[in-house]
Amino acid sequence: MNKPTIIGIAGGTGSGKTSVTRKIIASLEEHDITLIEQDYYYKDQSHKTMEERLKTNYDHPFAFDNDLLIEHVESLINMESVEIPTYDYVNHTRSDKTIKIEPKNVIIIEGIFALENEQLRDLMDVKIYVDTDSDIRILRRMARDIKERGRSMDSVINQYLTVVRPMHLQFIEPTKRFSDIIIPEGGENIVAIDIITTKIRSLIKKV
């Protein structure tokens, strides 16, 4: 198999990254695709107390083990399988379980900081930023955290104002300039997704 085509998909929380990713994968169903979610690579915190773990800012680049992610992507490029970590959100640390990932034609790396690390960006063939208005993103995050994570509305709003929004403005929004293409309104932008999948197909044929 030839060198995999590496796609990076970034954007703020609730921007529609996951919808874009799913639609790209569906549009490229004739190809073998591996999806790596950056959230798998939250740093191991087993050496910390639970009180210390609860103070972790998951919206800061330092929360992620980019060295391991880069190592794994380089291994996949070299046609080597990897065991990617998983995260235990109950105990706020890395779990003992891993997921075996095989090299595929296309590797998609998705996460809020997918374009933040220069070394990781340099491995990518296509860099995508999903850009959605902040009011839509906070409503989506609120709906998700209340429904799926049992959070109260007040706690979600407080976290957004004190952590999520400042981190977005400081670290995520600036990575837009590193992207090859910006997709407004996420998965609803069918034209942009068609353009991206056409480009990805052309890259796959070249390698």
UniProtKB/TrEMBL annotation:
Major site of localization recorded for this protein: cytoplasm
Matching HAMAP family: Uridine_kinase (MF_00551)
Pfam families in the cross-refs: PRK
Origin species: Salinicoccus kekensis
Positions bound to ATP: 11-18
Phosphoribulokinase/uridine kinase domain: residues covered: 6-191
Family named by the database record: Belongs to the uridine kinase family.
Listed pathway(s): Pyrimidine metabolism; UMP biosynthesis via salvage pathway; UMP from uridine: step 1/1; Pyrimidine metabolism; CTP biosynthesis via salvage pathway; CTP from cytidine: step 1/3
CDD domains: UMPK
Database matches in NCBIfam families: PRK05480.1, udk
Catalysis performed (reactions): cytidine + ATP = CMP + ADP + H(+); uridine + ATP = UMP + ADP + H(+)
Bilayer-crossing regions: none
Name assigned to this protein: Uridine kinase
GO aspect biological process, one term: CTP salvage
Location(s), subcellular: Cytoplasm
